[in-house]
Design goal:
alpha/beta; Rossmann fold; 5 helices
Chain lengths: ~150, ~150, ~150, ~150, ~150
């Protein structure tokens, strides 16, 4: 039985973690999910590390929704740097699912984007653990999560 | 008995650490607080680490008030990066409570903002240790500390 | 028998990992390649570390194609920082092969650039393991991968 | 007997380390100072670490004077990041005393600023080791080193 | 017998490593040099670490010539950050000798600058190992490597 961690925030304006858990359940079996909610994205790195080291997760999905101001961009950068460090300290993947508020033109698109990106990256996390050959088959295919795929130019 | 560390600075123009300690006392029992004051935000990471490793804290609230110039923004970024590293080295949460001088329109609002953010994040620190289910119940609710909540768009 | 890791992404719009593997085969013998495909460049650091520590690679080629927006530049910077950390944690070289979408004037040039840079850096990875004297002989020669060499000005 | 390290550079245009040592002697007793001079600010992190680990320092004052160009700002940022890492690796404080050339309107003010900031931070380093209660009493007081204090707004 | 490492790149347009080795030989005896050439500046951190840990170097001179575009500035920043990490992991100095292409007005000045900075920093590396008192005597003297010294303003 594998464990998939889902770390998310009270700062996000959409229940991204809930969508990730729902999509994982639709995608396959053989795992249980562990949920961990923190205030903001800068709290996600240690939450991911604790999910891996204290709650036995094999992979973690870390979801957040940084704001549109410069200070929010800086926070997101610090959080991302921490999420990479966690992976190098644990040799486990942590899939970052960040949706920046200014990626969308209004709240409706933002909610749509957050759900779709959360769902698509949940499948990526599943694939890293259960079917890595599916990722290798898509190497260089220009895949995107949320908005449409860019596609191959080869 | 849990220990909650409160690290703050002589640089800040408001006794943010004092407000955090006061709010913790109003919020619950079962813990004692450890105070550690340093000159500026770049001294907070090692103070937080020492609170955890040398004084047995289970969680730390790190409070600071970076100035409004570019150099201050850079200092805050360096401090934030260090605070994340501390968490990954100790597997303990360090809640960063930074109020940037240019977030407020005047000194009065700045003082108000610093107090309110310190108090609201003190509750977050308490929740991480004593009632994590309260955070999970608020996942994706668009919560903010200081200014008004953004709210859910789901 | 040496092991050369090839880590790449489904985000890239060209099968850069495939070109690297092909070029390695044309360059020499005495090694086998290990392929590892992840969603995006920020997933490359832990993939490189796992290739080295779990699959015995002596060197890794990490290939990606960051987009042209500011957020993509930030992602690439975070990934690069992580790739350097991996090297310092393992004492093994990880050759970063990133092609930024805005380096090329159109998709055709982008595809050409991605292939050529992947191939030329594959040879660098081979040289680091099998013939370091070839690199030393080219010290200060203004070599480039992808576009033309800048050349020596001595 | 405590040890206080003083790390400085040949790049600075003022003998900041000399002022720090002088101020420490005026401030108290019960310690000896260890001096370590390096070329530039990017050499300070390892100098600070060696002062702590190889020469037994309990705290280090790291002094430098970055130039006014963008590249100098970047160097200072890298050095600051390193100084924070040193502290997290050793659990010892390293007080950074940087004076940026463009903080002052001319050389005369720059020399004055460098001396005053070096002296005031030397006292902070002393306080961290010998009288931390003095720092706690000044929490939130808006203290500055070099230019005038900003003061409390509470 | 001490060992001095010289790490350089095939990307640089001047044989900076060659100048460093030549200057070391003119400066003193009691050491041997170890050369290590890599493709670009981002490969220098692990090269420096391997020189220290696998080839017994007491100090390393890491030389590179970043380009003038923003992406080159970012690469240099990542490399510099890595070089500082190497020092903190090994407690050995790594003297960074970077010459940015846009520091010089033309290729002729660039070649002159690269040689002079390489030579002057080679002496700094020698001094850190063999005569640190020479650096201490120059604390705060406003020394520069390459262009003219700024001088003291005290």
């Amino acid at each position: 039985m594998k464990h998939i961690g889902v770390a998310d925030t009270t700062f996000a304006r959409v229940d991204m973690g809930g969508f990730a858990v729902d999509e994982l359940r639709k995608t396959g079996t053989g795992f249980k999910t562990e949920r961990y909610t923190v205030p903001g994205v800068k709290d996600l790195p240690v939450a991911a590390k604790k999910l891996i080291e204290e709650r036995g997760c094999d992979v973690v999905i870390a979801l957040g929704m940084p704001g549109s101001k410069q200070i929010d961009k800086t926070c997101a950068h610090e959080a991302s740097t921490g999420l990479i460090q966690v992976q190098l300290q644990t040799n486990a993947h942590v899939i970052e699912v960040f949706v920046h508020e200014d990626e969308a033109k209004d709240d409706k698109e933002l909610a749509w984007l957050a759900e779709r990106r959360a769902r698509e990256h949940a499948v990526n996390a599943y694939d890293l653990v259960f079917r890595p050959e599916r990722l290798e088959a898509n190497a260089g295919k220009g895949l995107r999560q949320g908005f449409d795929d860019a596609g191959s130019i080869q």
